[in-house]
Each structure stands twice: as C-alpha cells, then as structure tokens.
Amino acid sequence: MLADSEVIHDAQTVQAAVDRVAADIRARLADKYPLVLCVMTGGVVFCGQLLTRLDFPLDFDYLHATRYGPETQGGKISWRSAPWAPVKGRSVLVVDDILDEGVTLAAVKESLLRLGAAEVLTAVFADKLNGRNKPLVADFVGLTVPDRFVFGFGMDAGGTWRNLPAIHAKKEGA
Ligand SMILES: O=P(O)(O)OC[C@H]1O[C@H](OP(=O)(O)OP(=O)(O)O)[C@H](O)[C@@H]1O
Ligand code: HPA
C-alpha cells in the first residue's frame, strides 16, 4: 500500500496543523475544564499529540466505535466501548482522525448528548472533501483531504500504517 501511495500532507504540514488546532481549542475550551474523549482507534495519534499542546486542566478518556474495520467502505457502527468517565454536565471534546461521511462522529455526539453532556465539540485531523452533505460539521479541523482513500497519522490502510507521520493517499487506480 505504501508503495502505491503519494504523500499529500508532509510531516511538517501535519505538525503545523496540530499546533493551529491546539491554539483554537485553547481559545474555546481553556476555561471549561473539558473532558477530552479520544475515538479509538484512529484518533489515538492526533489526540495524543494534541493533548501535549493543551496547557490547561482537562480530563481524558476514550471511547471505541468503528464502522470500517480493515475495509475502505463504511458499514454499520459497532460500539466496542463507551467512555468510562461520567459525561453528565461536562463540556466534552471528541477527537478523531477523519471525518469522512460523518456517520461515526454524528452518532458519537448524539450519544454523548443523550448521556447528558452540557456541550459536545468535535475535532478531526482530516476532513475529507467528498461533496457529501455530512450529518456533522467538525468544530476544529486540522487539514482537508481529497476524496481518496488516505492513511497515516492514525488512519489505517487495511489495519496498517497508522504510525506514519504524514498523510498519504492511495494512488488513483492503484
Ligand atoms: O465519517 P465516517 O465515514 O463515519 O468515517 C470516519 C471514521 O472511520 C474511521 O474509523 P474506523 O471505523 O475505520 O475505525 P478505526 O478508528 O479503528 O480505524 C475513523 O477513525 C473515523 O472514526
Ligand atoms: O480515507 C480513509 N482512510 C482511513 N480510514 C478511513 N476511515 C474513513 N475514511 C478513511
């Protein structure tokens, strides 16, 4: 997969975007003592790097929802784990790697509001420009990506390459 890909955002661009998103989140949430929730598995790299840049008090936990598995087409959401930390009355920031069709984050947000969160904000590293009318607009976005299968910086290609520091896209026709 790596050999059949091209870098669309290099590691330096990725790091600059994480810095920018962290500053935007700080401006919006620094005085809210938020609960930050990582959407496992893809959110782990962005969320981990973001956390080290957030210099204000916050709580951290994770949830696990998946609908792609190793596939490139999304299916039904499978909830593997709800957040353990209570969300009632909290300002919650949900962090994920990519907003593609928007189905995952829309469902996560709805469920957190149902659990009594005071507000739910969402941060995604990549927002895919796929022309769809997504059910959710992310509050914080790192970078946009074209309507192609992308991987790296948390996003997997068939389960592999989440560890790449740049964003790659599968070559057209590969
Ligand atoms: O906007 P959507 O079309 O719903 O797609 C985005 C979701 O898809 C990926 O998760 P995936 O189901 O692949 O699980 P993973 O995080 O374990 O890779 C990604 O991490 C997002 O959570
Ligand atoms: O383009 C993608 N790449 C990796 N994981 C994904 N999950 C949704 N869309 C994508």
TrEMBL record:
Enzyme type, top EC level: transferase
Gene3D superfamilies: 3.40.50.2020
Its EC number(s): 2.4.2.8
Cleaved signal peptide residues: none
Stretches assigned to the Phosphoribosyltransferase domain: 7-156
Organism: Azonexus hydrophilus
Record key words, sorted: Glycosyltransferase, Transferase
Protein name: Hypoxanthine-guanine phosphoribosyltransferase
PANTHER family linked to this entry: HYPOXANTHINE PHOSPHORIBOSYLTRANSFERASE (PTHR43340:SF1), HYPOXANTHINE-GUANINE PHOSPHORIBOSYLTRANSFERASE (PTHR43340)
Catalyses which reaction(s): IMP + diphosphate = hypoxanthine + 5-phospho-alpha-D-ribose 1-diphosphate; GMP + diphosphate = guanine + 5-phospho-alpha-D-ribose 1-diphosphate
Superkingdom of the source species: Bacteria
UniProt GO MF annotations: glycosyltransferase activity
Pfam families: Pribosyltran
